[in-house]
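Lab channel / #folding
Pinned by the channel admin:
"Please post every new chain as: sequence first, then the structure tokens as a reply. Keep commentary short and put observations after the output so the thread stays searchable."

First post following the new format, from NK:
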Amino acid sequence: MPHLHPIHPNRFMPLANCIAEWQVDDVVSRYRLHTVDCGELWLKSGRLVPCDPFTSLQKSDNVQLALPPGRYPVVVTVADVSEAQDGSNEREAYLSLVLSDRPAVGWRFLAPLRVDDEDPGLDSHQFIGVTVDAGVVAFVDAEAVERLMPDPDELDWYDELFYSGEDDAWGARAEDPDHLRAGCANITLPNAADGENLIFAYSGWGDGSYAVVGTYDAEGELTGVHIDLAILPVAPMPEWD
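Reply from TO:
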């Protein structure tokens, strides 16, 4: 097992439902965190693709992580960063795929790579980020994308799937507060016959490069995969401040 970092309280907080407070220099920040259940992701092949579905998802050759196949809950952790804590400024802080309800005691960066990519040999303080250019992060099964998504040379994904003007367009589902909540969506892939799906959420403050983090229990078993959207005002480790 590669080196695990300790989980410091109030520094790495996926799946949290609480009020957290930080003081950085003379600035005090107080956020209310809560979770949004986005349903289950059918990870049929066990090849998890973390991506910006609107700009970096491809028909094939996506970066991916190898996990046990299964149906896993996906949860968005939302932070209310408004000064009045009145819900007027909520930001998505983490997108999480939950593999286990066992308590997590440590974490490490995960490296989503294409099938033929060589391991870059990063140290425990480095990561390969998920590049976000449309303000959205997602989880989807690589094999389901390869099998079900239409050939982009024959059907324009942007005009026909993402922003078709129909109620089931991916962009429309993201804006629908009656679906999951505004900013999150559980999308059935085109022509899916077995519930194959993609789950996405807005990415906190917007575009950037975001770390994929694995959490582990006391036996070293993976408990979750999380895209950390860098919303908390402190670094995951004190020495990084």
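NK: Residues 5-240 form one domain.
TO: also worth noting, The two ends are 26 Å apart (CA to CA).
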